[in-house]
Amino acid sequence: MLLEVIATNLTDVIEAEQYGADRIELSPAMAEIGLTPSYGLLKKAVEAVHLPINVMVRPHSQSFVYNKYDLDTMKADIDLITKMGANGIVIGALTAEKTIDEEVLKQLLNVADDLEVTFHRAFDFARDQEEALACLAQYKQITTVLTAGGNYKAPEAISQLQQLIDLAADTHVNMMVGHGLKPATFADVYEQVKPHAFHFGSGARRNDSFAYKLDRSKIQHIKNILQK
């Protein structure tokens, strides 16, 4: 089972690989739920490690609703991410009615080429997660959906998560569980749900905060549970 760890800067990227992560989500500005990294961070991150790096593509933190100017920005960012040699992109778009914005999604996928695509936690703010999953499953380029089972912390939504994992089992989409996971209680969550991957952010850091560096002991503790 795969462990993805959020990296917000180059130090995080290097330490995530050293500490045992399987994949990195490169996503600075986590106080704003993640934004597209700078050119410099993207370039140096891809050069620094052998781990696959999936890059957040989010032009602002106002919402998950995007206009034509946002879309132009995101398409240019995806083009750069492709040229830099990253593994994939992390995207998500909703309409004002909180359904998947397929018009935006199609245009982003059209420029994504062979990049791996994760649909991020915009999924959890959709009006209906089952409806959203059925929509995303129509797009073969989308390989992963990150979810906490809705607008919750993942440990609070075990039944919803299991339902989504069961529904995704009949599709090509892999479910990745994240948000609110902590090493101290992770074993309980792991015993109850078995997605394709787990996604750790602040829970993999000292003091459970993005204000601090990644914690080697926490990541190794998580890996030990996943390897049992």
Automatic annotation (TrEMBL):
Protein name: PF03932 family protein CutC
Gene3D superfamilies listed in its UniProt record: Copper homeostasis (CutC) domain
Family: Belongs to the CutC family.
Organism: Virgibacillus chiguensis
Keyword Cytoplasm: yes
Gene symbol of the encoding locus: cutC
Primary localization: cytoplasm
Family matches, as InterPro entries: CutC-like (IPR005627), CutC-like_dom_sf (IPR036822)
Keyword Cytoplasm part of the UniProt annotation: yes
MF annotations from Gene Ontology: copper ion binding
Keyword annotations from UniProtKB, A to Z: Cytoplasm
Cell compartments where the protein resides: Cytoplasm
UniProt cross-references to Pfam families, sorted A to Z: CutC
Gene Ontology CC annotation, any one: cytoplasm
